[in-house]
UniProtKB/TrEMBL annotation:
It comes from Salarchaeum japonicum. InterPro entries: Amino_oxidase, Carotenoid/retinoid_OxRdtase, FAD/NAD-bd_sf. Residues 15-487 form the Amine oxidase domain. Signal peptide: none annotated. GO terms for biological process: carotenoid biosynthetic process. This is Phytoene desaturase family protein. Pathway: Carotenoid biosynthesis. The keyword Oxidoreductase applies. The keyword Oxidoreductase applies. The gene is crtI. Keywords: Carotenoid biosynthesis, Oxidoreductase. Gene3D superfamilies: FAD/NAD(P)-binding domain.
Length: 487
């Protein structure tokens, strides 16, 4: 195929936005089609009666990735939004009544670890040093540099850079080499939820998230994650990207050469197509059968990251002592993970996350009110009925009151829920997963679906189901990798 001059990007999540920027910067005529009324994919916003909720991602992690992305176009993030460091990074309420703050003060963190287990302070320093090395080497040689084939790993360069990395084994086994106390294990593993895995099925390489947590810091972007989306969209517009929202793609038809991409109202022609829509949905619903790489049995056999049960709550008064980022954890969370990956069910004793952006940003709620959402990771594919939601909502709010002392049940001014059916309907996500394919050992790196279709020349994929994987920073990088394939 000759060098492409035009591209249609299907889906306006972070992967699609990133790919569009890189392709437009390279001179292509880029049109992006978004199914919903907002750009940003899962980073949508719900506005109701003076409250503004980030509906999806809310942790601004890995700031170096955002800096690298904007630098590729001659900018810094602050050209588009300001960042406010959070202190504490997050607060944990353990369900035995214990409470602890995690901050950017490593001496404080070291003392917290030591208070739970003799010698754990030193162990934390060793663990953090290992995490930092895994991050530095992993990002440079295995994240920003895509290796889609087994032979890409069979080289002296890979062997040299991988020496000493924690590549194999589970996070659970790795962490047990450092800590015995269950709470300390949870502190260094909670971020696995952001990767869509559990301690038992996530590769030990992802201990690099501890470096992200403690060394790179946790920030709040001006305007929340919507501020980040708006910044990237503004950048894309300066590069010449054309956006169409409320434009659900119904068909991707390969031609010779190029493609026709059809919505209900229009048809768009382009040399190449990049899909940031759900990978399985793109192949199974938008492509003619002869151009699909995988059949339904393949998608059914994958291990998916959790879905989520979400409550968006506008509350009268304050919600102290909840912090901007708060975790509520049972002292033994194995049963919750089992109810996600082994025996799917709504967890009876859930581990969950509470976000209170009004603790930092007074624009997200009316005066005298608080803005919060509660996120419980649950198995994808669960039954999701109004009756189930109402019953589980009561369980979660009861649990919040019992274990944090914050009872909002009689103070709710605005309430919305979002769960399995909504992820499937709004984002076409397989089985209603909130994130995509989990980062198990057999679904990491070259074992994830490819960026360039192996069955349809000129069709490419970006986003969480490709490499490097789940999370906003990873999707930004995925966009760069996909653009490299196209170009």
């Amino acid at each position: 195929m000759t060098s492409p001059t035009s591209a249609v990007v299907v889906g306006g999540g972070f992967g699609g936005l990133s790919t569009a920027c890189y392709l437009a910067d390279a001179g292509l005529d880029v049109t992006l089609l978004e199914k919903n009324d907002q750009l940003g994919g899962r980073a949508s916003v719900l506005e109701r009666d003076g409250f503004r909720f980030d509906m999806g991602p809310s942790w601004y992690l890995m700031p170096d990735v955002f800096e690298s992305f904007f630098a590729d176009f001659g900018h810094v993030p602050e050209d588009f939004y300001d960042l406010q460091p959070l202190d504490p990074h997050y607060r944990i309420f353990f369900k035995d009544g214990d409470r602890v703050d995690m901050t950017g003060d490593l001496d404080h963190v070291r003392s917290v670890f030591e208070s739970y287990e003799a010698g754990a302070g030193d162990a934390f320093e060793d663990y953090l040093a290992k995490s930092e090395r895994n991050y530095d080497v992993g990002m440079e040689h295995f994240v920003y540099e895509d290796r889609p084939r087994l032979r890409d790993y069979l080289s002296l360069d890979v062997a040299r850079n991988a020496r000493g990395l924690t590549l194999l084994g589970s996070m659970e086994d790795h962490v047990e080499n450092y800590f015995e106390n269950e709470k300390l294990k949870q502190i260094v593993q909670y971020s696995l939820v952001f990767l869509g895995g559990s301690p038992q099925n996530t590769p030990a390489l992802y201990n690099l998230m501890t470096h992200v947590d403690f060394n790179l810091g946790v920030h709040y972007p001006e305007g929340g994650m919507r501020g980040v989306v708006n910044g990237i969209v503004a950048l894309a517009e300066t590069l010449g990207v054309t956006f169409h929202t409320d434009a659900a793609v119904e068909r991707i038809q390969p031609r010779d050469p190029g493609f026709t991409v059809a919505t209900a109202e229009n048809e768009y022609e382009a040399d190449v197509v990049v899909s940031d829509a759900d990978y399985a949905h793109t192949e199974q619903e938008l492509l003619p059968a002869q151009y699909r790489q995988f059949d339904e049995a393949y998608w059914d056999s994958r291990t998916y990251a959790p879905s989520a049960f979400l409550l968006y709550l506008g509350v009268e008064g304050d919600v102290d002592p909840l912090a901007h980022h708060t975790l509520v954890l049972p002292t033994d969370w194995d049963e919750h993970f089992a109810e996600i990956f082994d025996d799917p069910a709504y967890p009876d004793d859930p581990a969950y996350y509470v976000c209170v952006p009004s603790d930092t940003d007074d624009t997200v709620a009316p005066d005298g009110h608080s803005n919060l959402f509660v996120l419980v990771p649950i198995a994808p594919g669960l039954d999701d009925t109004p009756e189930i939601r109402e019953e589980y909502r009561d369980l979660v709010l009861d649990d919040l009151a019992e274990n944090t002392g914050v009872d909002v049940r009689d103070r709710i001014a605005v309430e919305e829920s979002f769960s399995v059916n909504d992820f499937a309907e709004r984002y076409n996500s397989y089985d209603g997963t909130a994130l995509g394919m989990a980062h198990t050992l057999t679904q990491t790196a070259l074992f994830r679906p490819p960026h360039a279709s192996e069955s349809c020349d000129g069709l490419y994929f970006t986003g969480a189901n490709t490499t490097p994987g789940i999370g906003v920073p990873m999707c930004l990088i995925s966009g760069e990798l996909t653009a490299d394939y196209v170009l």
